[in-house]
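Folding Task

Wanted — backbone structure
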Amino acid sequence: MSVGGLWSPANGWCPLNVLQKVDVRLVSEEACFRSYGYMVTPRMLCAGYRSGEKDACQGDSGGPLVCQENSGRWFLAGVVSWGKGCGRADYYGVYTRVTKLTGWIKEHISGHG
């Protein structure tokens, strides 16, 4: 998984002019629930590392979480949404789960293209 954004931990969190990316791992629903409890819904997924360190951060909201299939094809799996701080141990990044919203997306883009 890769996440894109414009923020970086250099002397604190500061905006950059160059798009950044970080590779993160999807985590189980159970691990996500352990971090956030009932704040996480079926329309969300978590990614990152238990040790923290790599994560999306403030300013990255709305950015893509993309995955690569074995065929090499990339697809949008999630959209950066929220989390507890940035790269904190035991707290994963939370993303909107795109597969749960494909019907809504198709409904709202039909006739606009």
Observations:
- The helical segments are 29-36, 102-109.
- The domain at 2-109 is CATH 2.40.10.10 (Thrombin, subunit H).
